[in-house]
From TrEMBL:
PANTHER family on file: FI21813P1-RELATED, FIBRINOGEN/TENASCIN/ANGIOPOEITIN
Species in which this protein is naturally found: Drosophila busckii (Fruit fly)
Coiled-coil segments on the chain, per record: none
Fibrinogen C-terminal domain segment(s): 106-283
Annotated GO CC locations: extracellular space
Highest taxon of source: Eukaryota
Identification of the protein by name: Maker635
Amino acid sequence: MLLKTNEKLSDELAKLQAPTAVGGNAKFVDELATATKSLSNELTKLQTQTATEAEKIELLFQKHLNNSEQCELFKKLETCAQANKTNEAQKLQIQFKNDDYTTTTTESTPRPDSCKAFGGNPGVHEIKVPGLQHFEVLCQDDSSAGRGWIVIQQRIDGQENFQRDWVTYRDGFGSFDGDFFLGLRQIHHITHSQRYELYIYVEYFGGLWLGARYDNFRVGNEADQFKLQSLGEYHWTKVNNDKMRYHEHMKFTTYDRDNDLWYENCATDQETGGWWYNKCAYW
Ligand SMILES: [Ca+2]
């Protein structure tokens, strides 16, 4: 009796539970399927996005590599340009300085007649010497030779062509912030206005330098073919090398005016520009 009652109860319980359980599982399975599908869609989307982002990253990476390569190339070019410049920076400066400073007052605005007045203040200044209107010169101080020098030739960066004709050497050419030649006419008038020292400064690639001084530098006029009339006594710093003596008393030569003692034209043969050539040779 008791057992029967239990069986009945069990059956009823099964009846009650079965539909509920079956119905509940089916709903759960449906929801699970929907959720899975939704997640799958999300996953597909994310995968697509990831692929797109990866492509973008790849492109950026490639671009960066290209930029790096370009930077490397630029660095190499810069280094190369610098090396060339250093090789060209074989300096040759020729300066001269007067013994005494006097002020000329023939123009309305008085100007010094040399760079001596600008010692301690190097740079481009105007001077006035007898026989010429005032003109600009580059004044320079030198740690070894002292202050107040007029620079008459500067060859420092190889940017200027020194293979120039007679008239160009007579009047001067180039730029004070680079290579230049002051002009034979000015040099003549300056060196005839009072006594001047000539200072030649040469610096070689690698740092070796030498300085040569002559205490009475004079250049003749154009009728005299701007002859190097006098150098004076020689003094030197670092290296004893009186090379300029070879050119003393020589007339000036350019490719279109051969005044040298060589059977041909030194300015043309050596391609170093105009100079007071003897049988050629240059500093
Ligand atoms: Ca000749």
